Amino acid sequence: MTFSVLLTERLRLRPLRLEDADALHPVFADADLMRWWSSGPHKSVSETREYVAQNCEGEPWQTWAITRMQDDTALGWVVFIHSKDRPNVREIGYILNRSAWGAGIAREAVSRVIRYGFEELGLRRIYADVDPENMSSIKLLKVLGFQQEAHLRQESKTHIGIRDSLIFGLLQDD
Prior knowledge:
Blueprint: E1 6-7, E2 11-15, H1 21-29, H2 31-34, H3 45-56, E3 61-68, E4 71-81, E5 89-96, H4 105-119, E6 125-130, H5 135-143, E7 147-158, E8 161-171
Parallel strand pairs: 5-6
Antiparallel strand pairs: 1-2, 2-3, 3-4, 4-5, 6-8, 7-8
InterPro entries: Acyl_CoA_acyltransferase (IPR016181), GNAT_dom (IPR000182), N-acetyltransferase (IPR051531)
Protein name: GNAT family N-acetyltransferase
Organism: Parasphingorhabdus cellanae
């Protein structure tokens, strides 16, 4: 799948590449950061390489590496996930190296992908599935205008057990 490079004032979001695995391994090996991810922390760079390779394949993923304008090193990623039965809807996900936290990078990157989804892809809805204890992600979604739409009890089985899910949605009209 080919898709656009997205630019912001400080960031370049480009298609994820297999070569990004080494830079992303510290992110996916960070147990605290991965607590809220759908899978546990990676034990090796080869595990991260396999994971990155899956996300580079496209369908149903559209994954952008988050990089700074002056440095092409991946700091994290933003992903759109879609299903064929809902062509104008995408799920959004994101992860960012903790060394880049607190600078508004996640907000800037996710906001740009949202704008791309609504303005260029013509989406009508973007949603996120978040663990109720992931306060940083909940705060980011609310800042970006997402509304909590559902609390699904015991929705997911993850590496930390059976977890509830909060569904946040953003409509093109919002």
